[in-house]
Amino acid sequence: MLDIAHVEVRFGAFVALDDVSLRVDGGEIVVLLGANGAGKSTLFRTIVGLLRPARGTIRLRGVEISRLPAHVIVRQGLALSPEGRHLFPQLSVRKNLLLGAYATPRPQTDADESLDEVCALFPVLREKMEAPAGALSGGQQQMVALARALMARPGLLLLDEPSLGLAPLVVKQLLDAVAAINGRGTTVLMAEQNAHAALSIASRGYVMENGRVVLEGSRESLLGSEDVQRAYLGI
Description:
Layout: E1 2-11, E2 14-24, E3 29-33, H1 40-47, E4 55-60, E5 63-64, H2 70-74, E6 78-81, H3 93-101, H4 108-121, H5 124-127, H6 138-150, E7 156-160, H7 168-183, E8 187-192, H8 195-199, E9 204-209, E10 212-218, H9 219-223, H10 226-233
């Protein structure tokens, strides 16, 4: 579904992404592990068209997207739930969610159906629908951010650090929801520092350091890697 080949991103003389290649097949959950500053968010911003690679290709379902503007890429069936959530705190939960639906023009009835679907995943949001998003707890705000991305019914969902700053119980709830989303047919690429949590639902993964992919493998091989254990699992 997603094929990234030899992508390089520069900010002046600084190389932020250096010869990055990875793939995500349809129906998978793939995790991108790496410490803060490893290049995960830069890669996601490049995939969705907010940054332009200096070289390399990004293909979605075989179509080259690395030179397309962001709003066109979104209409190809790709959605990003960004690190830090980036909600509109003064707007209601409902309005924040509907902004996700507007990214791909569809009838209002489809948006209403999408609202029902995300509320089935996160029942607490139904109770908070008219509350300002900024008044919610951190975990509930992350649910809104994830639900907003789902409002466009993407075929490929990018999740950037969904567990950041959240309590373990909330992290489990969110990852259970991600697994359920995947079970309904949505492919997921998730950037995470919490390797143990992410690999509990992912089938494969990549490890990034200093803008490069330095390791890749199955869930079992990454969990068994001494480098991954030392850097991300505290073993």
